[in-house]
């Protein structure tokens, strides 16, 4: 999800091609259509399509969620009505109605203000001005562990058919002694410094400022008996083995996401995600074009001229391919359904390009027979350069 300070700069409804009054069903329908049209698997190597896909996914993550959409709409209405600019410096006076000139919205919505992504807009404004009636500030208990990135290299056929492989990952994992709680007894208590709110308030001039509690890190909790093994963090650096399942048809450079397999969150909070970048080795026989496989097959002159049926390799068992009589060098024949098969998608085709090979050396019998054929060819009036310029 985009940070809320970025929401002010983006029009998520326009990104999805719907109006701000669109229903949930209309938003979902528009997202599915655009995601399908711009999915990276359908446009391998197309950076523009990948960027459009990310843009659409980000927009749907916000306006496709009723709660996030409400907050987003509130912010956009406040911006449209000049709600933020209204605090600018009054002409001819030394008084600023709330913010100084050059005030950055990032100070409210970004991390510099000490607020997590999950903070409610009403909570933010209420805490900033130390007003807001019954607005309740929530401790940041949902902060999860960091995402982790790693890389693997696959053979061409492993990537095409899909595979599962173990990888070793060294990162923060739940402490085995305290089972991730950070407490020797497994118990946590309300922070005595912020009374469980996760914030410390302080009066600065006309304003009451709030910032995350430095003692509990904004969680609203404290541990009276920290685990001696992890010093109360609930995590320790550990090397573990994870089995990564790579879907069939993965492309070179594609990232596979394993939810919850990143670094463990502190004190039992959710783990981050693991992103595995896949590198694919070249294959001596096959090349890939989308979901189609391309292969060049050598044939003899008689096979091309007279026609024949030859055996051609595929990712599975070989197939028999008919070479029509009079096939020229470089002609491509299509074998349907023998390309890449991705889950939920139609299988690609095998494209067989014919390459006519001629012998480098011939014995006397071959030479004599070929000379006789050449003479017969001339007598029949065949000239290979007749229409050549």
TrEMBL record:
Residues 29-48 are annotated as: Disordered. Participates actively in the response to hyperosmotic and heat shock by preventing the aggregation of stress-denatured proteins and by disaggregating proteins, also in an autonomous, DnaK-independent fashion. Unfolded proteins bind initially to DnaJ; upon interaction with the DnaJ-bound protein, DnaK hydrolyzes its bound ATP, resulting in the formation of a stable complex. GrpE releases ADP from DnaK; ATP binding to DnaK triggers the release of the substrate protein, thus completing the reaction cycle. Its main location: cytoplasm. A zinc finger (CR-type) spans 162-239. InterPro entries: DnaJ, DnaJ_C, DnaJ_domain, HSP40/DnaJ_pept-bd, HSP_DnaJ_Cys-rich_dom, HSP_DnaJ_Cys-rich_dom_sf, J_dom_sf. It comes from Corynebacterium gerontici. Homodimer. Residues 162-239 form the CR-type domain. The keyword 4Fe-4S does not apply. One of its GO terms (biological process) is response to heat. This is Chaperone protein DnaJ. One of its GO terms (cellular component) is cytoplasm.
